[in-house]
Amino acid sequence: MEEVPLNNVKDDLDDLFADETEAEAGAPRDTDKWKVLIVDDEPGVHDATILSLMDVVFDDKELTFLQACSGLEAKALIEANPDCCIILLDVVMETDDAGLQVVRHIRDVLKNGLVRIILRTGQPGQAPEDKVIMQYEINDYKSKNDLTKQKLFTAIISALRDYRNLLTIDGTKRGLEQIIEAFPSLFEVQSMDDFISGILTQLSSLLRLDESSIYHLDSSFLAGSSSRNIIIAKGTGAYGQHSGRLASEVLEPGEFEMLLRAEAEKKSIFAGNSCAVYFKNKTSSYNMIYINSHRQLSEIDRNMVEIFCNNVSMAFENIEKHKIQESMKQAKDIQISMLPVNFSDITPHGIDLYTFMQPAREVGGDLYDFFFIDGTHLCFTIGDVTDKGVPAALFMAVTKTLLRAVAKLNTNPGEILRIANGDLCKDNEKSMFVTVFIGIIDTVTGRCSYGNAGHNPPYIINGSGEVKAFEPADSPPLGIMEDIEYQSGELTFSRGDTIFLFTDGVTEAMDIADQLFDEGRLEAVLSENRGKASKAIVENVVSRLLEFTTSAVQSDDITILCLNWKG
């Protein structure tokens, strides 16, 4: 059959296309339509094009037509309709290159690289195909003289398929960009409430939604069960006023069943314009996000939501770590506040005292204390709990409180240790224990009574500079066994004598070759500092420790108490 060009009069159209294959029709219609812009200065071409394509359906969406009769009108229409899919563009209109100028405007000015441009010309000589294809970003070139209904149909379907695929790629790109942009802000938040709000904001941006969504964060005891006690922690849109309410009271039965199904199957559920996204943290807790959109969620929407939510679990862990770090910082501040640091109060009593403590973690299990029992008797003590971290810090706090309370009522060190031991042994399910050295010095006479519960011996630096280990009678640490009798001993300070108390974190500190600092190195440092003030002795020991360990990881808490009796 002879093919007749499209720019013939409309009266000939029925004959022209009578034997051509008709476009497939009858597919379900969607509210969205593919926008096709027809740009031509011949009204008959508009009519013929619309008549040829009016029944075309692609991906369940039909076409809708925009019309322009000049390049100027075309520019205005494409600016107003950036979601236009295809432009059927004439070349020669108000000027010989009006159509080509429209192409440049779309690509260079509007930066629209998605719309598919099919150039149609009735005067190929004015715009040779090889030249136009090379110099202008068009997607197809058709001569009106050769363009039949079937060829037009094929060109349109091909262009729509390309546009759809490009749209998917562009959506993926933008979605990934938004995910990348989202995470820094999510990791910066300082509270779980802000964090959840950030998730919902980013999801709305990611999906380009104005719908409602709710966020459900439940505790670990609900994991793996269908308790029907899912609580809305934070909501937006229609769910914005329902924070703290049961999801079963807010959602429709079918919507709530979707949440229960996601919870039970431990996977995301997508259905139409709704989804329940399930993602589990490294901990035993899990999270769900429910989204109810005004439009059907596409495959790319699903992929973006799942990528986003699966990676959000890392941010959850960051928030939890931040909360733990804040808690540990507060615990450290509390622990430090429990330790006396005002040495000037005891200086008028002839006592030169200085301390140092450095936990191996944020908080530690070492303890020291000093306080006056009465006007002339100063109690000083040092201890080392068997564990580290928070449990040790709590046990340390209890021990310190007990020792101070008992010492206020009883000035016999052995009896103080016995009573404290009895209390620490009660309900000690974790079998923690603490080594303690306690001394009570008469600041007037220099006479000092003491008791030792499994602690490493202190050093005495006498006035002449001699350094020797003081070996008091040793008894078991506190907290191991009830009904233990602890002995008391006595020594008398001469003017200028110093006692150096420390925990084993000093002598057992290791360098990068795993060598111990040991007692020999400590004794050498103490000998070098004989006759110096307590502060100078402590600071020089700590300095030598740092030189020895260099970049090695601190393995144990380090605590020092140095007391000099001036008489």
Word description of this protein:
- With 567 residues, the chain is α+β, with helices and mostly antiparallel strands.
- The chain folds into 3 domains: 10-169, Rossmann fold; 189-326, Beta-Lactamase; 339-565, Phosphatase 2c, domain 1 (4-Layer Sandwich), CATH 3.60.40.10.
- It is 39% helix and 21% strand.
- It is built from 15 helices and 21 strands.
- The chain has helices at 13-16, 43-53, 71-80, 98-109, 129-135, 149-188, 192-207, 247-250, 253-265, 299-338, 389-407, 413-425, 504-507, 518-528, 534-549, and strands spanning 34-39, 57-58, 61-68, 86-90, 116-121, 140-143, 212-218, 234-236, 269-271, 274-280, 286-292, 351-358, 366-372, 377-385, 434-442, 447-453, 459-461, 467-469, 489-492, 498-502, 558-565.
- It has a 6-stranded mixed beta sheet with strand order 2-3-1-4-5-6, sandwiched between helices. It has a 5-stranded antiparallel beta sheet with strand order 8-7-11-10-9, with helices on both faces. Strands 12-21-20-17-18 form a 5-stranded antiparallel beta sheet.
- A hairpin with a 5-residue loop joins strand 10 (274-280) and strand 11 (286-292).
- The longest helix is centred in the N-terminal third of the chain and has 40 residues, at 149-188.
- The chain starts with 12 loop residues before the first helix and ends with a strand.
Write the layout of secondary structure elements.
Layout: H1 13-16, E1 34-39, H2 43-53, E2 57-58, E3 61-68, H3 71-80, E4 86-90, H4 98-109, E5 116-121, H5 129-135, E6 140-143, H6 149-188, H7 192-207, E7 212-218, E8 234-236, H8 247-250, H9 253-265, E9 269-271, E10 274-280, E11 286-292, H10 299-338, E12 351-358, E13 366-372, E14 377-385, H11 389-407, H12 413-425, E15 434-442, E16 447-453, E17 459-461, E18 467-469, E19 489-492, E20 498-502, H13 504-507, H14 518-528, H15 534-549, E21 558-565
Parallel strand pairs: 1-3, 1-4, 4-5, 5-6
Antiparallel strand pairs: 2-3, 7-8, 7-11, 9-10, 10-11, 12-21, 13-14, 14-15, 15-16, 16-19, 17-18, 17-20, 20-21
